[in-house]
Amino acid sequence: MNKFESRYFQTSEKIDEALVRLLDKKTFEYITVKELCTEAGVNRSTFYLHYENTRDVLEETAEKLIEKFLSYFPEDPHTAVNAIAEKRPEELVFMKPEYIIPYLTFIKENKNIFCVALKNYDNFNFEKTYSRLFHHVFDPILKKFDFPEEDRKYVMMFYLSGINSLVTEWLNSGCKESTEHISKIIIKCIMDKRENCLSF
Prior knowledge:
The chain is an all-alpha fold. It is built from ten helices and no strands. It has helices spanning about 5-25, 35-40, 45-50, 55-70, 75-85, 95-110, 110-120, 125-145, 150-170, 180-200. Helix 1 (about 5-25) crosses helix 4 (about 55-70) and helix 6 crosses helix 10 (about 180-200).
């Protein structure tokens, strides 16, 4: 990384962090370039070298959050996805501690930014992330279990909504319980519901 790239990266980090701090105080629509620059300690001309508007900053911050999230998993996501087609249905237990605990660890270690992200769910474009998850992971797995194509998106949202609600409650309590304990609760809920869905 050369000196220019390093300076660009540092400025980007300052602005992203400033956005997260401001989002903890007010809704995104009311955040201006001026106060974002003041919070980040950069001037407006520097801001416009990097971004056109505050929406660009939000998109960058959300993308970095997703990239950081993926880095917590021990296996390359693309490798895991490609392996789905080769597995038998009984092997497709994706709600396992080795998948859930890294997810919960990420949330716990980044709980401040995650609380902000959940409060600004639409702005952080989680629907786009879930859409990718559905296309690459959930849809192939549900297909293996012979779920009709038209039903798969509803089944996925059933699981994701439940997990999001549980995680939100955990965040609201300050993540007091261990990641292992929350992982066990999620697995129990998912596996019980999965058996019911498969016998439907």
